[in-house]
Specification:
Length: 393
Amino acid sequence: MNSQAFRHALAAVASGLLLSALAPQARAEIPTNLPEEVTTAKLPAVDGQRVYVSDPAMNHIVDGRMHVLDGGKMRYLGLIGSGFAGLITLSHDKKFIYVATAYYSRLQRGTRTDVVEVYRSEDLGFDHEIVIPPKRVQGLQIKALTAMSPDDRFLYIQNATPATSITVVDLKEKRVAAEFANPGCWGVLPWPNKPRRITSVCGDGTTTNFDLNDKGELATTTAGPAFFNPDVDPVFMHYETVGDRIVFVSYNGKVYTVRLADGGFQRDGEPWALADAAQAKKGWRPGGFQLFAIDPAGKRLVVGMHEGGGEGSHKNPASELWVFDLATHKRIGKLPGVAALSMTFAPALPRLFVLSAADNRVVSFDMTGTSLPKKPLAASLPVGDTPVYLVLQ
């Protein structure tokens, strides 16, 4: 017997001798069958820096995760299961977390059930679920696959069977309100200034607008003009909203801005290039998943860029983060790339949160003032298996 094992054995013998020496009454008073007490720590209030990290866990994709971080302190707060490629959407009033997901009766096979799971932001506790048609797109999260109406009444979900359609979930009545086709089109983009209108981007560069009634049912459908040429310069489906304008970035590195007008998306000026001639010659292109972000003031655009890009490099993580003035279209500086895959700003703070593909860390940059930071403000510990997307609350 080695010395460590001997010490453990000696301690056990001593403990037994002590219990034997106690009077029967004293031994009876020692509790031996009390259940372990399980408690839940209270979450800090939602402060605009709570980070939800979408992790489809691709090595065991039927068991996806949503990790929750305190972005200010870079502290891990909790975990919510998100099923098979679950899609996260947050209510505007900060009260609820919605996860559109799917489950199979035999884990990876069997009967499929699609649901919208509703969790409370205050404690990450499950509140209720709403069963939806088993058609929800099963893909990695991007903003355009699910969206909330501006008044938090309806949740819109992109379907693919592979035929494309949109499910409208009435969150007040806790039921499916409608489903309608958006053939040849993809994504659900809600209009901030028209609470019952959504738009899909179509394969020929045009858009289709869907106007709903107050029950969530389809009222009218109108076609919008083309704002890009998909054969020459296709756009990423990630988008950012600035007032009554929506910004897209193309695979070739151009920025398209559309204005939300009565007829639909109207191109707001000509697209402008992120890279100049010399940079384009070196193959500088945008890449990533949630590959660009715009600050809450709507003044600065941050884009993940990589050198030597070409056909098929559009998912490459960033080697540099380029920062542009949206008014002048001029690059005003760079941030370290940190192998950025996804990024987003805090809703009301000039703080940029970035997901690194190198080590699964969430990294923050303080974007206060006009001078750009030379290094990150803070970084979390590595998070999850295969995280892909960030949502801030």
